[in-house]
Amino acid sequence: MSEWLIFDPLFRVPFLVGLFLAAGLSLIGALLRMRNEWLAALGLAQIAAAGGMIGVLFHWPALVGAFAVAGTAMLVRAALPKVGNSHYAVMILLGWSATLLVGSFMDHGRTIGESFLLGQLYFTYLPHLIGAIALLVVTIVVFPWLSPRLLTARFFPDFHTANRIPAWPYRVLFGLLTLMATVVGTVSIGAFPTFALLFMPPWVAFVLVDGWMRSVALSMGLAVGGYILAFVLAMLLDLPFGPIFTALLVSFGPLRFLAGMRRSALSRFGAV
Fold first, then answer.
1. pTM score of the predicted model
2. For range 193-222, the mean pLDDT
3. Alpha-carbon distance 227 to 207, whole Å?
């Protein structure tokens, strides 16, 4: 019977939510990887999970609580003179502990907390779909404008200052986009699957192909292809989606060895 569930109308909205998120998060993940800020994604996802729990505790929509708490964390991060991986590690630990502690004050809090951390795709509905579509549309619209500015800032850090070009517009926009991605992703598919989507596809793609846009395209292909395969496997094998999706994305990691094999072959060919 499991194979027929794939075509059940009950799962159409969840499938589309995950599909749009896979496409949108892979694009944002490529920007985070390029800027070497990928750890921020996990920190914000954990904080968003805690915010979602706070929203449930006070009978607010989980999305409102997640945006409020994660947005506050982003403002605190922006106010710090210098932010590094240590700060993101603190966010991860704080978000994880807060999620579980807040859950102790409500009935079935442990189950709800695990759903925010590990995934709850099957329980998504129209508001999640609207959020996923909005995220993908906004990302596609701003990516052509945002991408070259972030690339310039990454590889030529003094360019904007030397040319008296304000840097805050693209920095604020990228921060808001990252916030939106982690919050919508966390309340839809869970903190760890969201982080896996932001981290794994670009991590693999960036070493397999040359060129920025080719890397972005491969990252999206891995994310969307991995999502569809994970959704089908979860249905057929009657397994929870979040863990199987995360495990499948991690299984792409060994593809990075292909880059080393290619370089080795090219070097031998060049030597001849």
1. 0.86
2. 94
3. 21
